[in-house]
Amino acid sequence: MFCPRCGRKGHGLCIDCFLEENPVKLRDIKISLCACGNYLYRGHWSKKITDSIERIVEKNLILPSEIRLKGTRILPRFRCNRIDLEIWISGLYGGREFRKKIDANIEIERRECPECSKLSSGYYEAIVQFRTKKSVADLNLNPRFISKIKKVRGGFDLYVVSSGYARQLRRRFDDLGFRIRESSKLVGKKNGKNVYRISISIEEPDFEEGDFLRYGGEIIQILRRGKSSLCRNIVNKKRKTITISNLRGYTPIAKRSDLREGVVTMVSPEGVQVLDLKDNKTYEVKNETLDLEPGQEVDILKIGKEIYIL
Description:
Elements: H1 15-21, E1 25-26, E2 30-33, E3 39-41, E4 44-46, H2 53-59, E5 61-62, E6 67-78, E7 82-93, E8 96-110, H3 114-121, E9 126-131, E10 146-152, E11 155-160, H4 163-175, E12 179-190, E13 193-203, E14 212-215, E15 218-224, E16 228-233, E17 239-243, H5 244-247, E18 260-268, E19 271-276, E20 281-286, E21 297-303, E22 306-309
Parallel strand pairs: 2-8, 9-13
Antiparallel strand pairs: 1-5, 2-3, 3-4, 6-7, 7-8, 9-11, 10-11, 12-13, 14-15, 15-16, 16-17, 18-19, 18-21, 19-20, 21-22
């Protein structure tokens, strides 16, 4: 048998002639696109149009009943006011597989999404008060949720457009050992419900990881700071965890940067002699519990007249 339209060998109309008479079409699609990448489709704002194009196109394809769709591949090209689409369709027609390309487009209206509108208007639902020596750049914050940054004494205040993101910051820095306090203020009503603006204070401890503290008659080094901080006694080298609440108010007696390079010059039952490579002086450390050998390089810490090997 032959195609009655073009004469090609086959059963009935060939796929090319069939699609000429019964083309695959794409319904008219219009979306609103924000500069940030958020898009509005059918009354709902979503993120990342690039991740959603294939789903939107497949739901809007108009296929003849004789064709069974097996898959699509969408190649979008973004223009100023439209998205040009190269749509590859694979399917079955008359029991045979085929693959065809159609060209279509999606109309774009440029429009600011609610998130960006809040940012540009200075809107905020929460103030997060950071009291830290770190800069804003050091804290790995998401600028999409921050409408304003105000520098103040001891840190900075963030004006945050989402109370949910503010509380996300609270949980994150609470886990890192920062002191957290929260309060709320009634600012109005919306749909008959009270609307509150929250303030969250996030205060960094006076010590950092690697710092040395005098705590409970011993000298400890902070190995990991958090709700339960991992510490090490620098004399007997034993490790333990101490809750951050028990460490509040303690200030460092030495910093990690105060460590100096040294070399072990002698080991005896009474202790160890170590050469400080900074001042070329030899110091004796008694009852040192480390397993050391002459010539071994070590870190040493000088606090007052005492020398400690780490």
